[in-house]
Design a protein that fits this description.
The chain has 209 residues and is an alpha/beta fold. The chain contains 8 helices and 5 strands; from the N terminus they run βαβααβααβααβα.
């Protein structure tokens, strides 16, 4: 990925408190300093409409399928109003969460990981040329939920997902590991246990360069 003249779509994934938001922001800041055209965004969110959906999603208790449909609606707005236009304008896009998080958090209740990826491939397309939008590379911040959740509660900003029981978070973590094994060409796993933020950042840079 040394050729930054070609814009890249880079995502960061992981459970609560895994450090993905910190690392996605640090990569963004690094590329800005290098003079590379880059934007930083997040899911659920990234546009005015998607951020409004995010507020509903993370604070209201909804049916499982309703959650999935809201995530998909927000992503379609995000893809076509921000991500695709930015890539076409020559910007690298760094996104905090994307489809892998949806597969990990919204799977269950008769919805499989494969179901969610199938929906993404059918629906999450650029509105003009209908190409499926997927990341060029994804960094999975591998950290056990017992550690990550403790970190999340220390920040004091807890939403309904962080407040779920440990069985839920363990299931999410296992799904992340499974997806990482399914898409080894795209997903780069970084072991974050007992590592300083700067050390993890350097690992991201070594993989991306």
């Amino acid at each position: 990925m040394k050729n930054w003249n070609n814009p890249k779509f880079i995502t960061f994934e992981g459970g609560e408190g895994s450090g993905k938001s910190t690392q996605s922001r640090k990569l963004y800041e690094y590329l800005v300093l290098k003079g590379i055209k880059v934007i930083h965004t997040r899911e659920v969110g990234g546009t005015k409409e998607a951020e409004e959906i995010r507020t509903l999603l993370i604070h209201q208790h909804l049916y499982h399928v309703s959650e999935l449909m809201l995530v998909m609606a927000a992503r379609y707005e995000h893809i076509n109003k921000l991500i695709v236009p930015a890539l076409r304008d020559g910007y690298t896009v760094i996104c905090d969460r994307f489809v892998d998080s949806t597969a990990c958090y919204q799977a269950g209740d008769n919805l499989t990981i494969e179901d969610i990826f199938d929906l993404h491939n059918k629906l999450m397309r650029a509105s003009d040329d209908h190409r499926v939008v997927m990341p060029d590379v994804t960094f999975f911040m591998d950290l056990e939920p017992q550690i990550g959740i403790k970190r999340s509660f220390q920040t004091g900003d807890v939403n309904k997902f962080e407040d779920k029981n440990m069985n839920f978070h363990q299931a999410v973590y296992e799904r992340f590991k499974l997806i990482a094994s399914m898409y080894i060409d795209r997903i780069k796993t970084i072991n974050c246990r007992n590592k300083e933020i700067e050390k993890i950042h350097q690992e991201v840079l070594s993989l991306i360069n």
